[in-house]
Amino acid sequence: MLKKSVFNFLTSTKSFSKMLSPLESAKQAAAFKAVDKHVQNNYVIGIGSGSTIVYAAERLAERVSKEKLNVVCIPTSFQAKQLIVKHDLRLGSLDTHPTVDVCIDGADEVDVNLDLIKGGGACLLQEKIVASCANNLVIIADYTKDSVKLGDQYKKGIPIEVIPMSYVPIQNKIRNRFGGDVNLRMAVAKAGPVITDNGNFILDWVNFKQSDDWNQVNTFIRMIPGVVETGLFIGMARIVYFGQADGTVKEQIFNARNK
Question: How far does the chain reach from its first CA to its final CA, in angstroms?
């Protein structure tokens, strides 16, 4: 059993305050709109990870209670599973529900083509698996994640999940091919590196040169032996809701002609 303090840390945000900051208001607005527009009765729903998803789970629980919706929730991480449990939502898995109607997830940065950087919370592998099973990937984010090009605003790098024994060769291969710095992500509350839900390491590729063909970059990195997955989500999102500081929401739809 999780201690109550740990459980609360995993599943809470500033929503305990009646007066949300502009940033939290933006997250809440995006999350509520996505859940209201894209969730229907009898849906299988992928529940993403991150601070904005907390509001999505909250809104989903409200709708399930008020409208008596029958939905199944597929988690993308330990945090997502705890949110589902906290709100008494029906927990499912890809074993029993391999096709997901809609996946609602956050992002660290979104460009004009709706290509994404994800994985700041080290959940990128399971997030991408669930997203790949979804008929519709809906991204919710605040205004700080809205960029023209990937790397314009998000400076923490592109996360790459790797098998532990391979991280040094992978660092060298990425640096030699693309430049930049490739850092092993270190844990804060423990000694040593961050360990993902899957038992792997995370590399953060920072100071990279911005690309006009992220699909090519993503393919090259994924082909390196030992790379499990990258935090580049290319051509996967179909719609993004950017919450604004005033509580309004900017909607951006995928346009194949921009690719």
Answer: 47
Kindly state the DSSP code that residue 142 receives in the 8-state scheme.
Answer: E
Q: pLDDT digit string (tens) for 59-100?
A: 999 999 999 999 999 999 999 999 999 999 999 999 999 999
Rounded CA Rg of the chain: 18
Contact yes or no for 122/128 (Cβ under 8 A): no
127 annotated active-site: yes
CATH number where 76 lies: 3.40.50.1360
Confidence of residue 116 (pLDDT cuts 50, 70, 90): very high
**pLDDT for 186-236, tens place per residue?**
999 899 999 999 999 999 999 999 998 999 999 999 999 999 999 999 999
The single residue of 24, 58, 127, 229 carrying the catalytic annotation is: 127
Considering the domain boundaries, does residue 253 fall inside one?
Answer: no
Q: What is the largest CA-CA distance in the chain?
A: 55
Q: Are residues 84 and 165 in the same domain?
A: no
- Length of the chain (residues): 259
* Tokens (6 digits) for 223: 């082909």
Whether residues 184 and 81 share a domain: the answer is: no
Overall domain count for the chain: 2
Answer whether 87's CB lies under 8 Å from 57's CB: yes
